[in-house]
Amino acid sequence: MKIICSKNNLLNGVNIVSKAVPAKTSMSILQCILIKAEKGKITLTANDGELGIETVVEGTIEREGNVALDAKFLSDIVRKLPENTVTLDVEENFVTHITCENSFINLIGKDGDDFTALPKISKTDSILISEFSLRDVIRQTIFCLSENNSNHMMNSELFEISNDTLKVVALDGYRIAYRKVALKNTYPDNKVIIPGKTLNEISRILTGDVNKDVVIYFEKNLVLFELENTTIVSRLVEGQYFNYEQMLNNDYETKIKVRNKDLYEGIDRGTLMLREGENKPIVFDVSDEKIDLSIKTIVGEMKENISCEKSGKDIAIAFRPKFFLDVLKVLEEEEINMYMINAKSPCIIRNDEDTYVYFILPVNFIKE
Amino acid sequence: MKIICSKNNLLNGVNIVSKAVPAKTSMSILQCILIKAEKGKITLTANDGELGIETVVEGTIEREGNVALDAKFLSDIVRKLPENTVTLDVEENFVTHITCENSFINLIGKDGDDFTALPKISKTDSILISEFSLRDVIRQTIFCLSENNSNHMMNSELFEISNDTLKVVALDGYRIAYRKVALKNTYPDNKVIIPGKTLNEISRILTGDVNKDVVIYFEKNLVLFELENTTIVSRLVEGQYFNYEQMLNNDYETKIKVRNKDLYEGIDRGTLMLREGENKPIVFDVSDEKIDLSIKTIVGEMKENISCEKSGKDIAIAFRPKFFLDVLKVLEEEEINMYMINAKSPCIIRNDEDTYVYFILPVNFIKE
After folding, report:
1. Are A269 and B299 in contact (CB < 8 Å)?
2. Whole-angstrom Cα distance, residue A248 to residue A356?
3. Is residue B67 pLDDT above 60, yes or no?
4. Angle at which helices B71-80 and B7-18 pack, to 10 degrees?
5. Chain B nearest C-alpha distance from A350 (Å)
6. What confidence tens digit (pLDDT) does each residue in A315-349 have?
7. Does B344 touch chain A if contact means CB atoms closer than 8 Å?
8. Under an 8 A CB cutoff, do B73 and A299 touch?
9. How far is CA A5 from CA A2, A8, A108, A281, in A?
């Protein structure tokens, strides 16, 4: 194989597919990026078995062929090459000569035929969504997943399609994120469960451009995201998702309208009282026109009062500060509405259009 | 004690003195910042025994006194306060009430009288240098110190004053950095050895302003740096410094003039062939008009040729890439001069004015 392309095109491609290279394995074929020059197209591929990414790189093919190169070295080398055209010339024994201006680098490669190709997908069932909407909805829900949980449902998000709506749900047993996105077309009902890791990597590849579309294809155990030059394939999680809808009910005894920024900054300052790993709750003491926030730890205590509009009963309720901050951070509204029943029942944050619902369980606290 | 000052003044002061708070000790008085309001002046002090920093914070004193507060908590709290005036009100039991807008924080403090004061210095012997020159000369030499070395001389820099010149030397057994700085006045000869840690922290406090001066006072075992609002006291290292001058001799067989940027980028790309912790040398093969750089590791090999002007003998010599990069990084000249004798003798990089000399020992290599 011999190809010529610009340093920046190559680097961009390497950066994209590197997201499917596993962080830890001994130097095996899994840690490589497959470079393939075939039928006039240069493609880079990485595949860790769960997640596979393929991207097309613009360039000239002088001799077709393939090679698998260690992802980390390739990425480091390409990043530091001069900003100019790069030639990759692969010998029969897969030693790869990388040339750029006065730099000559030989890298020991592997046979690209040993690389596991991405699974084929029939491309029958699909939806269309903008890069912007997809990236946004992932960002606004993914923080509710549990990072270390043996229950795969709590590491994964539900994508539920009905008519022209995509509902995305993430939950970890303490909180639920629910978002509704309008789709441009109408589709048959479908429900898939996508691993959080896949969504996380995809959201880092998406440009967030409103005018660029992503086609998402579904198959029995697989999902494929087709971007402009990049294809991402991931396994789906099998099984039945939680019956989340019954948890997001609309009853409440107290409704509070508050400025997001005020509440965020108040809680954020409260977290200063916590030492690393410490798990003290922040208490919301809500009376007619204000929320008295307070937190007390071994270090000291913090009090802060925030003005709000309240209807219904007074309430004193406590939360893990991080759970509340995570939600407030992704809400763009200046003012938000919180709905509560009592100190043992979840707090629901939602807008009137019901395009989002967040559910946060309170924690016990001792009232002074 | 009760004081009022702006959040930004307080934060700035806390950041400055925090550099003398040790990273690891259990929550003792050493991990605290002393806040003192006395004789119309608010001062913050931190002191780890080796290094002590005191800085003056602008503000209003409503009641004199002192308190010692945990540095990490204080710094985190002040950073997150609203941008407004902050009141610190200390009770008799040293519980400190921090108030800013609607935030009320109580922090458990300690008696400031338990805090070890900075050592007194007689302020007889001193030199004057600009913040800019001091910061620069530290940056340009400190990388030659060895981080983990039981020989304190290799963790510390020599400051040698003679007439109107300050010479600064750092060495670690493999390389030497030597810099000469012109002083504004003439001073009696003096030699002190200052711990690298002290210089490192000072360089992070110095603003780099050409128009601001630092007074450096010397006493038997101590050095004191007096900045605009900040005083830094450090212990000196006792003993005899190395006889470095005989190592920096002017003999050479080969003189090479090369563009700094070309050489830097070439060596930098060579380091890509190294796996973490790997210790392969980069070979300089110098013939009439070019340096052929090459490095060969388990991953592959890199060659790069760099044009240069050479006088004297051809030479092949090898170095640890990092040692060379460290030096090239701090040289501002577009073109630099390297002087070599043979593959076993040090390479000397210096300018014609002799304001700097860098010495780098070569390493063994097998010529192919």
Report:
1. no
2. 11
3. yes
4. 150
5. 27
6. 999 999 999 999 999 999 999 999 999 999 999 99
7. no
8. yes
9. 10, 8, 20, 55
CB contact under 8 A, A300 and B269: no
Place A367 in a pLDDT band, splitting at 50, 70 and 90.
confident
Contact B233, B118 (CB under 8 A): yes
Is the pLDDT reported for residue B26 higher than 70?
A: no
Domains and CATH numbers, chain B: 2-114 (3.10.150.10), 125-246 (3.10.150.10), 249-360 (3.10.150.10)
Locate tokens 């806390």: which residue? Answer: B14
Residues 44-103 of B with CB under 8 A from A: 70, 73, 76-77, 80-82, 95-96, 102-103
Tell whether A247 lies on the interface with B, counting CB pairs under 8 A.
no
Instruction: Give CA–CA dist B191/B214, Å, rounded.
Output: 18
Residue B219 forms contact with A (CB below 8 Å): no
Q: How far apart are CA A98 and CA A315, in angstroms?
A: 67
Identify the closest residue of chain B to A293 by CA–CA distance: B103
For range A245-256, the mean pLDDT: 92
Residue B271, min C-alpha distance to chain A (Å): 9
**First CA to last CA distance, chain B:** 74
- Complex ipTM more than 0.90, yes or no: no
Share of chain A above pLDDT 70, in %: 99
Select from B199, B55, B182, B193 the least CA-distant residue to B129.
B182
Residues of A whose CB is below 8 A from B269: 77, 80-81, 103, 105
Residue B279, number of CB atoms within 10 A of its CB? 10
pLDDT digits (tens, 9 = 90+) for A136-186: 999 999 999 988 778 889 999 999 999 999 999 999 999 999 999 999 899
Q: If we measure between CA atoms, which residue out of B63, B86, B68 comes closest to residue B10?
A: B86
The reply to whether residue A105 touches residue B73, judged by beta carbons under 8 angstroms, is: no
Cα dist. B136→A136, A185, B141, B187, B202 in Å? 45, 63, 9, 21, 11
| Closest residue in chain B to residue A77, using alpha carbons only | B272
Distances (CA, A) of A284 to A269, A299, A300, A351: 14, 20, 18, 21
User: Which of A96, A105, A301 lies at the smallest CB-CB distance from B302?
Assistant: A105
B105 Cβ under 8 Å from any chain A Cβ: yes
| Chain B residues close to A303, C-beta within 8 Å | 103-105
How do residues A281-310 score in pLDDT, each as one tens digit? 999 999 989 999 999 988 889 999 999 999
**How far is B158 from B152, CA to CA, in rounded Å?**
11
Q: What confidence tier does B202 reach under pLDDT thresholds 50, 70, 90?
A: very high
Q: Find out whether A171 and A242 touch, Cβ atoms under 8 Å.
A: yes
| CA–CA min distance B290, chain A (Å) | 12
CB contact under 8 A, A300 and B73: yes
Residue B27, chain A, CB below 8 Å: the answer is no
Cα of A153 vs its chain's centroid, Å = 15
Residue type, A332: E
Distance from CA of A94 to the nearest CA of B (A): 12
Rounded Cα distance between B368 and B349, Å, is: 27
pLDDT band with cut points at 50, 70 and 90 for residue B368 = low
Tell me, what's the pLDDT at A231?
Answer: 97
Q: Do A266 and B103 touch (CB under 8 A)?
A: yes
